[in-house]
Design a protein that fits this description.
The structure holds 2 protein chains of 2 kinds. Chain A is mainly beta. Helix content of chain A is about 0%, strand content about 50%. In chain B, a hairpin with a 4-residue loop joins strand 7 and strand 8 (about 70-75). The chains are: A mainly beta, B mainly beta.
Chain lengths: ~110, ~110
């Protein structure tokens, strides 16, 4: 069964460094998402992406964050200057279209030192 | 702002028992409700999606219901098995966009 894949599974970065998290959504899906889950807290929405542009973003998704679909298969989340509070599990998800089930990857655990 | 709450936070049952997990949401402007399973250190596995025009959805031993007027959804698991042990999350997608708003989850343990 097709699945969303994320790399790396664990990323350790010094505070202030840039980090790029990578995702390969399911191939026929058109909507792409990033969510994060801080340890012990709820899963939180960051951003949705459709037709090569952001369709919706949360208040968490400030100027430090950006997303890109550099080619036909990858979907990336960049954090420009990481902070300690960015430490979390970051999940990528994709859906055939909006209002359809969102399918999640296994996540990237980001640890900021 | 949509708030999603799940009760109980944790549940431990003996194998074979039928059980119900509860999810409530504050804003009835919800387009659909999705239930997920999360195993430790893993991502979220989609179990069922109920659209606002539906009252329930079934998949195998799972049955999910949605009552928008009362702001509630339930996930019924029949004949529970140890392999059902996981955290179960519900998430609502609002009519105004495609973001999912998640509950805190219910950690289920099924004892052999």
């Amino acid at each position: 069964e097709p699945e969303v894949t994320q790399t790396p599974s664990h990323q350790v970065t010094q505070m202030g460094q840039e980090v790029i998290l990578r995702c390969v959504p399911i191939s026929n899906h058109l909507y792409f998402y990033w969510y994060r889950q801080i340890l012990g807290q709820k899963v939180e929405f960051l951003v949705s992406f459709y037709n090569n542009e952001i369709s919706e973003k949360s208040e968490i998704f400030d100027d430090q964050f950006s997303v890109e679909r550099p080619d036909g298969s990858n979907f990336t989340l960049k954090i420009r200057s990481t902070k300690l509070e960015d430490s979390a599990m970051y999940f990528c998800a994709s859906g055939v279209y909006m209002r359809q089930p969102q399918h999640f990857g296994d996540g990237t655990r980001l640890s900021i030192l | 702002k949509q708030e999603v709450t799940q009760i109980p936070a944790a549940l431990s049952v003996p194998e074979g028992e039928n059980l119900v997990l509860n999810c409530s949401f504050t804003d009835s402007a919800i387009y659909n409700l999705q239930w997920f399973r999360q195993d430790p250190g893993k991502g979220l596995t989609s179990l069922l999606l109920i659209q606002s025009s539906q009252r329930e959805q079934t998949s195998g031993r799972l049955n999910a219901s949605l009552d928008k007027s009362s702001g509630r959804s339930t996930l019924y698991i029949a004949a529970s098995q140890p392999g059902d042990s996981a955290t179960y999350l519900c998430a609502g997608e609002e009519t105004s966009g495609s973001r999912l708003t998640f509950g805190e989850g219910t950690q289920l343990t099924v004892n052999p």
